[in-house]
Amino acid sequence: MGWGDLGVYGEPSRETPNLDRMAAEGMLFPNFYSANPLCSPSRAALLTGRLPIRNGFYTTNAHARNAYTPQEIVGGIPDSEQLLPELLKKAGYVSKIVGKWHLGHRPQFHPLKHGFDEWFGSPNCHFGPYDNKARPNIPVYRDWEMVGRYYEEFPINLKTGEANLTQIYLQEALDFIKRQARHHPFFLYWAVDATHAPVYASKPFLGTSQRGRYGDAVREIDDSVGKMLELLHDLHVADNTFVFFTSDNGAALISAPEQAGSNGPFLCGKQTTFEGGMREPALAWWPGHIAAGQVSHQLGSIMDLFTTSLALAGLTPPRDRAIDGLNLLPALLQGRLMDRPVFYYRGDTLMATTLGQHKAHFWTWTNSWENFRQGIDFCPGQNVSGVTTHSLEDHTKLPLIFHLGRDPGERFPLSFASAEYQEALSRITSVVQQHQEALVPGQPQLNVCNWAVMGHLAGPEGPRLLPRRHRPPGATPEGDPRGPHRLHRRRVPRGRIQGASASARAEGSTWALRVCLGEGFWGPSGAPGRARCLGSPPKGCEVGPPRPPRCAGALPAGSGFPAQDRRDRVARSVGLPGVPKLNPRGPAASLLVPSASWY
Amino acid sequence: MGWGDLGVYGEPSRETPNLDRMAAEGMLFPNFYSANPLCSPSRAALLTGRLPIRNGFYTTNAHARNAYTPQEIVGGIPDSEQLLPELLKKAGYVSKIVGKWHLGHRPQFHPLKHGFDEWFGSPNCHFGPYDNKARPNIPVYRDWEMVGRYYEEFPINLKTGEANLTQIYLQEALDFIKRQARHHPFFLYWAVDATHAPVYASKPFLGTSQRGRYGDAVREIDDSVGKMLELLHDLHVADNTFVFFTSDNGAALISAPEQAGSNGPFLCGKQTTFEGGMREPALAWWPGHIAAGQVSHQLGSIMDLFTTSLALAGLTPPRDRAIDGLNLLPALLQGRLMDRPVFYYRGDTLMATTLGQHKAHFWTWTNSWENFRQGIDFCPGQNVSGVTTHSLEDHTKLPLIFHLGRDPGERFPLSFASAEYQEALSRITSVVQQHQEALVPGQPQLNVCNWAVMGHLAGPEGPRLLPRRHRPPGATPEGDPRGPHRLHRRRVPRGRIQGASASARAEGSTWALRVCLGEGFWGPSGAPGRARCLGSPPKGCEVGPPRPPRCAGALPAGSGFPAQDRRDRVARSVGLPGVPKLNPRGPAASLLVPSASWY
Asked: Distance between CA B75 and CA B53 in Å, rounded?
């Protein structure tokens, strides 16, 4: 979801009355940022309070490469990271995640192993449908159990856009709140993904927006937020519940206009470190504590939600590691402003830094010329010469600096000769040096050396499908009783046996498809540096500890795609025609609008 | 001022608390339009309820040419037009205009000859300073009397941006409200121009905005609106006063980033018929009548303020002419939506039409390649291939159609083959045909055949400077008692004698500079078609009724500039070096941000 998607942030159709009211009753942050222009790293940052470069949610496959956790990634949230629900447990909190986890899909990364007490949702987005032979659909879990898969037990009609998922996620949230509100302090992380392409909404919302299907999805999320706030009032716990709404990255514009959101007046969108990629809508609500109708110009970060939540629970963040999140309570309760930098990373590369009103770009890049010429455009209709570059441009010697107050759209770099430039550069350089000198990067989790891991269905460690079809609580698609599910019935065989055999086939094809692009190598079920492999590694890949890339078919640095697409193209480039595409709908589907995070 | 300049429309710095509160207490229109992407035509449309093509506020000098009323334009609002204050007089209203008139500066166009009872302001923007020899500064009037000139009696410090003008205009408004509120129904047209480059603010506001000087100006306007609304409450007439805030055209982006506003997510700005050029902020406020916190998706127009105001006064619009303004009261009071088209003209050319959510472009154009290569950019950072064209592109056979709900930024034209395109085209074509068949264009008032008219200082008909320096009510610049005025003292000789001699010199140079680009010709003091000339007309110009252009030095159609700049370049092209430039700061100054209209 993008900064400009809410009425209160200027969306012209003004279709978010509940979120707008939440803003009117609370505090709005116009200068609030995700920790990354992509979903998984941003969510890992939210839950750890640490930049992805610290918690491992980045790749060293290539310089400045975006990466997330498609099914084939073996990495995930390291056990060494302390997640917000783990810490809140010390204060008696019960925690639930509803929706997309995105912090790894192999058993050791399960949310219930990282502090959550309950989970209803999926380890990944609702990409698909897949053929369930070489590649199964994404699973949906209730706690430890797989209760079905997208496009199967949880139908999504790609043609009409109908899916009941947001209603299911809403009911899960309401149910959790009702159960916990009178007994325990609780932490709900509501991570819906209806605004992530393929965009969906339930029947009562479909076709109701002036903005098309994307707007339908936004309207349903808005309506759900309204229902949750209403329940808090009804349960008389509103004045004891801190609620924050934000998003994990800017609206993806490559799916525009049908399935893309709005980043308001900002430059570009998801995948980029321009404002459109990382500035987010952000609303705080806590009746009786946060005064109504306030705007805070505090530079905020999704990582602050970690520190702020701990502070609310009377806890302090871990002292044995760097924490990037601020405690926002002084801003929320006393209207104070705290100096802090915002760091914009792509993968392992610090692309830009904002301090006060000034933003310095050390590197500029949207995507590669190759991708751009194929029609993949992260900045449709926008072109700022020398800024929205299609090659990775090094400005570290002489950064481009913008004043975000006068020029929120990053169109007019300050003159290098100006006193303002010199002053801003000096301040920012000092902060960046300090940051980089103290930085201890985490072990990169999002490198790609194997694309047939699919841990969610792998052998004995893998999940078990519940024996009966899951019936969503209180939400059944209307119309044809067979529902949109039927559309994919022929393409998506169901059930445990097929899943297992698909898994076997996937395992069997592992080595043929294995490519090694980064400095580390992991086998299909090994941990970093301790690979366990079947058969012989393919040419150019080795089993062993991290080492510099020596892979066949490696792409030049800076092709601008997350691992998934790149792998696909590499697979083709090393002469493996007929390899099933990771996403049958092409690379666009792996790069689209993120879900909104709400917790 | 642009659509995106108010906090309530999403401006990230959120520096308009008074306007935002006005919206919260009243009704916000996200789909409200000016009648033209330039100031004079839009203001003429506001006061007549008629499109500029009807009321004469356009030029036939060239196809699709923007034009306004610089000092040298002899045209103005025709006597045949019935202005809102003229009509309101029938219902006992007393009317005042504060600020920029812009409907002609020759004696017959004086606002007090067109229904206003009072005027404090200027016939034009605050361009300058000029040399007061070949070209005097723009005068400021109180009613019939010239009370001074910008940069002289009304100083504007271009270096610091300091000017007390908005404070003066505020005091004039407050004074008028106080005087009238208890005795007569009143109509106040508050037409400030602080956000028009050169942008200014008074000392208490200078340097207070995160957005730079433009933001300072916006903050002062916002503060002034707050004071006016407060006074209405204090006088207990708030529930009997309808207040509307809007702007006359989108933010001019060529003065970005220092002196430009924001058009939010929309394409381009002033001078263009993309949404950024004509979609405006619009707030209606009438406590006790318009319910608080409403949003109306009614397609609205600045011309509706004419019809709506008449309806509020119990009057009907003239029946002997076409009126384009709708009565918005059903939208304001009952939340109704009325079907209506929005027509986007440049000069004599219907560029685009919006009906419902669909906008069809019949012509696309920003400015000429020639201008663009000189760095004049109406769409900085934006480039939509085939849409933001630098030649006037004819799409009349196959219009480009956008869905403004899904694609407010006009980036993705609908597929010509789609059913949606066909349906929208059919609806829009029908409405446009009806419009064009019934259209009777007015006599064009903004053609340029002479650029030494300067009626505001010409001989016996001209204004008289009051003998003593005007002291603004309750607002004196702080600091150096000589004030910023001193900076220009040497360049700007003052007083009646110099003005008169400058006038004589200007008169003397009339013929040498005269060029004729249009189908009509006017002498320095003649009315259209009845020119009275000194000496012989220059080659290519004739005295007489309108006829096709046969001028020397005419520019090719589509150079993208209003008359002023074009004239300047024509003068050079016919071999007259040394002609003083109309604006010493170059063409940018004649194309910048418009003022906000409030009435």
From this structure: 14
Domain map (residue ranges) of chain B: 3-59+85-347+577-592, 349-438, 451-560
B448 vs A: CB within 8 A: no
B473: preceding bond cis by omega (within 30 degrees): no
Nearest CA in chain A to B23: A8
- Chain A contact set for B413 (CB, 8 A): none
Nearest-Cα distance to chain A for B281, in Å, is: 11
pLDDT band (50, 70, 90) for residue B449: low
Burial of A461 (0-12, 13-18, 19+ CB in 10 A): exposed
Nearest to A211 among B264, B406, B410 (CB): B406
pTM of the model: 0.81
Judged by a CB distance cut-off of 8 A, whether residue B297 touches chain A is yes
Q: Is B23 on the interface with A (CB under 8 A)?
A: no
Burial B490-510 (b: 16+ CB within 10 A, else e): eebbbeeeebbebbeebbebb
Contact B264/A12, CB-based, under 8 Å?
yes
Q: How many whole angstroms separate alpha carbon A272 and alpha carbon A37?
A: 6
CA angle B52, B57, B58 (to 5 degrees): 90
Cβ atoms of residues A353 and A359 within 8 Å = yes
Mind listing the pLDDT tens digit for each residue in A275-300?
999 999 999 999 999 999 999 999 99
> Which residues in chain A have Cβ-Cβ distances shorter than 8 Å to B384?
381
pLDDT 10s digits, A446-457: 987 644 333 333
**ipTM computed for the complex:** 0.81
Beta bridge partners of B359: B354, B402
Binding-face residues of B in 186-205 toward A, CB within 8 A = none
For A30-57, what is each residue's pLDDT tens digit?
A: 999 999 999 999 999 999 999 999 999 9
A39 in a labelled binding site? yes
Tell me which of 3.30.230.70, 3.40.50.150, 3.40.720.10, 3.40.640.10 is the CATH number of domain A3-59+85-347+577-592: 3.40.720.10
**Contact (Cβ atoms closer than 8 angstroms) between residue A39 and residue A595:** yes
The three-state (H, E, C) secondary structure of B552-587, written as one string: CCCCCCCCCCCHHHHHHHHHHHCCCCCCCCCCCCCH
CB of A223 closer than 8 Å to CB of A205: yes
What is the set of active-site residues of A?
39, 102
Portion 89-148 of B in contact with A at CB < 8 A: none
Q: Which residue of B has its CA nearest to A14?
A: B295
User: Is B516 among the catalytic positions?
Assistant: no
CB A299 within 8 A of CB A342: yes
Answer whether A262 sits within 8 Å of B265, measured CB to CB.
yes
According to the annotation, is B541 in a ligand binding site? no
Residue A393 CB contacts under 8 Å (≥ 6 apart), including other chains: A363, A364, A365, A386
Out of 3.20.20.100, 3.30.1120.10, 3.40.250.10, 3.40.50.720, select the CATH number for domain B349-438.
3.30.1120.10
B248 annotated ligand-binding residue = yes
A125 contact partners, CB below 8 Å, separation of at least 6: A39, A100, A102, A138, A193, A196, A595
Q: Residues A268, A382: contact at Cβ < 8 Å?
A: yes
Q: Tell me phi and psi for residue B251, to 5 degrees.
A: -60, 135
Q: Any chain B CB within 8 A of the CB of A356?
A: no
* Amino acid letter, A269: G
The better pLDDT of the pair B254, B567 is held by: B254
Tens-digit pLDDT profile for residues B135-175: 889 999 999 999 999 999 999 999 999 999 999 999 999 99
- Bond prior to A562 in cis (omega within 30° of 0): no
